[in-house]
Amino acid sequence: MTDDQDQARGESYARLVELKLASVAAQAHATAEGYSEEAWSPWREAAEEYEAALAEHAAAFGPDRDEVDRAVTAEVLHPRPNE
After folding, report:
1. pTM here?
2. Average pLDDT of 67-81?
């Protein structure tokens, strides 16, 4: 992989982390109240945007989609302390 490809991969991964964070925040907000289409719509939209970006990233850079999803989810839900 060239330096430009590495940079593009890193930027794409960082975007996935941002989108996953947004989806998790939208989920927390939506589930804090009872179900309503209006309340849950932002969560669905955020999740759909993440899923589309995830598929794009996996197709462009590999590894497979599930592996990338596991890594992003672990980073978002179980961040490592700064060293």
Report:
1. 0.89
2. 93
